[in-house]
Amino acid sequence: MAFDFATPIERRHPEGGYASQKWHRYDANVLPLWVADMDFRSPPAVIEALSARVAHGVYGYGEVPATLTETLCQWSAYHYDWHIEPEWQQWLPGVVPALHFAAMVLTEPGEGVLTIAPIYPPFLAVAERTGRLAQQAMLAESSAPGEPWQLDIEALEDAITPQTRLLLWCHPHNPTGRVWSEDELAQLAALVERHDLWVVSDELHCDLLLDQGARHRPLAAMFPELAKRTITLWAPSKTFNLAGLTSACAVIPDAALRKRFVAATKGFLPDGNVLGLVAAEAAYKEGEPWRQALLEVLRGHRATLEARVALWPGVSLSAPESTYLAWLDMREAGLGASPAQVLLERAGVALSDGEAFGCPGFVRLNFGTTASQLEAALARMDVLLKA
Ligand SMILES: Cc1ncc(COP(=O)(O)O)c(C=O)c1O
User: Fold this and answer.
1) For 103-137, what is each residue's pLDDT tens digit?
2) Number of separate domains in the chain
3) Does 6 reside within a domain?
4) Are 326 and 273 contained in the same domain?
5) How far is the CA of 366 from the centre of ligand 1 (A)?
6) SS3 of 310, please?
């Protein structure tokens, strides 16, 4: 079945009817390649399931359908060879809330929450927002243009103190797109055990591995001994472009840990978004052909971007192995200390500023858009960056 990833879809409605953060934050002449949602319609099966649910017309309090939890069990077994149980799943309205609840449940005020930068900005805010001690290590930078960033296990070890209780881990990694190697994950698992840490493994981008044949391994599945100390966070939101429907899932195999987590969320989170849950089920049940087609499109966009960056002196791209986010080193591009700001003001392209990820001088570019929009944005960037 052919899916349309090429026709631009109006998201900046003159009356704001589509209220998109991505398209409304900046002036109408700016091309937005920043926040992580895609400019594509969700799979037809999702749209059909939502339409049917909307037509029902009654939107009272819902519950998580058993058909959804079973569908996620099947998805996990089929794609990741991880045989999870329905009762391990705690559905909630987002991954970011889950990061915060995890910190509150797994640590005491003043204890250390460790993250590794660069990282998706909310990771850096969790400790402060929950009254915990923020601890941070850096990844090892690319050794040469185009080479991947890597886990620096010694830097991580050095950042650990007796206060450290929790590691917030991103797998695959936003913003570098890294799909961690088995060796890196084994080093991480050993460190977690050695220091008796809890782990939140944010695996939100795990269904979007770009290399042919690449397969995600959930941390808790790869190292079963870690399962009792791990909360795995999944959602259909990135894969199937459903972020606005706020449905995510914390997979918590350990019953005692799950009980504590669920208790902490009571009163702070709504019961569930009936439309989001319907969309999630349809996506996991019927969205696979669409996901495969999407991956082809994203591979093409990644190649387009790589070819273009090669023409920009002083700019390098750590080739993303997953998702639709590209992490560009612009420190030598001649645009000064805030390249994202310069590109916004002088090229009319909105990217995410690396500073928010803990790395000034870098930018993150979202290529989850139509080929024509990507080309238009790159052409604007050419004016400032091409030799
Ligand atoms: C790694 C990661 N975690 C969490 C989120 C946000 O998840 P949610 O919208 O479910 O809170 C994002 C969004 O880009 C992300 O990249």
Assistant:
1) 999 999 999 999 999 999 999 999 999 999 999 99
2) 2
3) no
4) no
5) 14
6) coil
328, 309 contact by CB (below 8 A): yes
Question: Residue 171: which domain range?
Answer: 58-286
Q: Pocket residues for ligand 1 (CB within 6 Å)?
A: 36, 94-96, 120, 170, 174, 202, 204, 235, 237, 243, 248
Closest atom of ligand 1 to 323 CA is 16
Question: What is the tens place of the pLDDT at every residue in 142-194?
Answer: 888 888 999 999 999 999 999 999 999 999 999 999 999 999 999 999 999 99
pTM of the model: 0.97
Same domain, 84 and 35: no
Pair (306, 379) in one structural domain = yes
Token reading at 54: 């909307």
Per-residue exposure over 29-44, b if at least 16 CB sit within 10 Å of its own CB, e if not: ebbbbbebbbbbebbb
286, 321, 347 - which closes a domain: 286
* DSSP per residue, 76-99: HHHHH-----GGGEEEES-HHHHH
Task: Give the Å distance between the CA of 100 and the centre of ligand 1.
Answer: 12
Q: Is 168 inside any structural domain? A: yes
Distance 95 CA to ligand 1 centre (A): 6
* Residue of 33, 120, 207 best suited for mutating to test ligand 1, as the one with most atoms within 8 Å of CB: 120
Residues 97, 228, single domain; the answer is yes
Q: Which amino acid is at 372?
A: S
Specify whether 191 is located in the same domain as 320: no
